[in-house]
């Protein structure tokens, strides 16, 4: 019998392994030390800015995010994170967003009237992004990826979001793959990617086939990967849950500027953290 069409399809549910395998014990790998460089500094400064923000500016921040949530619900997630008591733990992507909010206040003549979605087109956003990217220690395809990412920014500027969004989704996975190869956790074997330390259970020939597998391995390389929204293996984010259907053509409702914006924040968050990783 033909399986009914499911617009809620996601990679995790349909990967080729048993349902309980991600709950099983995995091989534990000692954590690599990181250097206190760009990524950590940005988060610390962003958190301090958030704690010191005046009430009027904080109200504008939350109001701006709530308004954008009308087209992309993930903005409500950011607003909820940034509308907590001062002693609360703030999510990684919300802190990275807060970093850029502080830059808007610094660089824009009339920050209160600034269109938040135009942030991606600013010189200061792109400079920060490529500074982080250039600090990455990856040898595989780095130059080619830089060109692709430059084109993603161009697509955003041209308002070609149906082209921009798949590129960013793909590069989020591709960059993670490159980092895992560079760190020796994945190995390229002809057309296959092999789980070197056999971290993910139940894989035939230890062959990695999905972003979910790579995310599990990344968590063993450094547990902070679990804090990055782009690599969280749960259903809490519509940006993650709609990824498969958008890339495979069954979701045509979310190719918009708001989704592109969130993905660029996720991309910066991921690259900024990855730039701190050293062997």
From TrEMBL:
Superkingdom as given in the UniProt entry: Bacteria
Listed transmembrane segments: 260-277
Keywords annotated in UniProt: Membrane, Transmembrane, Transmembrane helix
Protein name from the UniProt record: DUF4209 domain-containing protein
């Amino acid at each position: 019998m033909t399986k009914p069409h499911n617009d809620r399809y996601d990679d995790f549910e349909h990967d080729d392994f048993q349902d309980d395998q991600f709950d099983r014990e995995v091989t534990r790998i000692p954590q690599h030390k990181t250097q206190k460089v760009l990524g950590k500094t940005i988060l610390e400064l962003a958190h301090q800015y958030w704690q010191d923000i005046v009430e009027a500016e904080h109200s504008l921040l939350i109001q701006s995010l709530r308004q954008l949530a009308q087209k992309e619900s993930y903005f409500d997630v950011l607003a909820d994170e940034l509308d907590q008591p001062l002693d609360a733990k703030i999510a990684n992507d919300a802190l990275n967003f807060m970093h850029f909010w502080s830059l808007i206040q610094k660089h824009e003549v009339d920050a209160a009237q600034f269109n938040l979605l135009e942030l991606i087109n600013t010189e200061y956003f792109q400079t920060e992004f490529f500074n982080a990217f250039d600090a990455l220690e990856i040898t595989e395809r780095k130059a080619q990826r830089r060109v692709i990412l430059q084109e993603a920014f161009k697509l955003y500027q041209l308002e070609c979001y149906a082209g921009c969004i798949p590129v960013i989704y793909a590069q989020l996975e591709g960059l993670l793959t490159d980092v895992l190869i560079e760190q020796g956790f994945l190995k390229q074997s002809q057309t296959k990617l092999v789980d070197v330390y056999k971290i993910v259970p139940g894989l035939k020939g230890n062959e990695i086939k999905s972003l979910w597998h790579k995310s599990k391995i990344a968590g063993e390389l450094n547990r902070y990967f679990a804090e990055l929204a782009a690599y969280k293996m749960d259903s809490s984010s519509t940006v993650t849950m709609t990824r498969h259907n958008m890339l495979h053509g069954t979701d045509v409702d979310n190719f918009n500027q708001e989704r592109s914006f969130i993905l660029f924040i996720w991309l910066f968050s991921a690259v900024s953290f990855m730039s701190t990783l050293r062997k």
